[in-house]
Amino acid sequence: MIRITIISSHDDIYKFIDSFIQKHHLHAEILDFKTNKYYDIYFIEVQNKDDYLKYQNIKRTHETLIYFIGPHDFDTIQTSFHFNIQFYFRIEHFKQELLEYENQIIQKIQEHFHYYTYQNGHMIVKLRLSEIYYIESLRHQIIIHSLNGELHERKNLKDIINELDSPAFIQVHKSFIINRNMIQKYNSKEVYLKDHTVIPLGRAYKNQLKEYETS
């Protein structure tokens, strides 16, 4: 479940975001904002640049998406981008801009909060794709290396690529798929991930990384 919080004094903003979520069938819930809680997505209304001081310490992770809604004011807009936000909506054009950029917004949400369902007997685990570092093929099984450890599954790489169905994952070797958001650097022979794993780069897959650079 994607946890969304909306900080706004305008009921129509709340209602429009709620209808937007329903329209796209997002597996999400809107929760009341509490300073000691983590949320996946923030929609925050600001009146001026001084309002940002209230939100500079909000709880966030590397996945968190933040959208500000505020006046068409240069200083306020410029200050917002110090927060590494996804988008700044002008409050007087909020509905139009949300609809204008809805494809990009939904794509970003799906990239961050899409799940892969792992099942082994009676055990079912839902993994966020953004928490998967890489997937390794080894002796007729795959090993999913994620933020929460390793999961083993009898499956091949072709099957898992089709099931993930996400542009975030690219194959760089006959035995490895990586989450491109986890790439730190690479050279002609190896790919270095942010968790310090070094993955071999197969000659036949170098074009995958070239496409990654331009996407």
TrEMBL record:
SMART domains xref list: LytTR
Pfam families registered for this protein in UniProt: LytTR
GO MF entries: DNA binding; phosphorelay response regulator activity
Keywords: Activator, Cytoplasm, DNA-binding, Two-component regulatory system
Record's keyword annotation contains Lyase: no
Domain of life: Bacteria
PROSITE patterns the record matches: HTH_LYTTR (PS50930)
Residue span(s) of domain HTH LytTR-type: 116-215
InterPro entries given in the database record: LytR-like, LytTR_DNA-bd_dom
Name assigned to this protein: LytTr DNA-binding domain-containing protein
Species of the source: Longibaculum muris
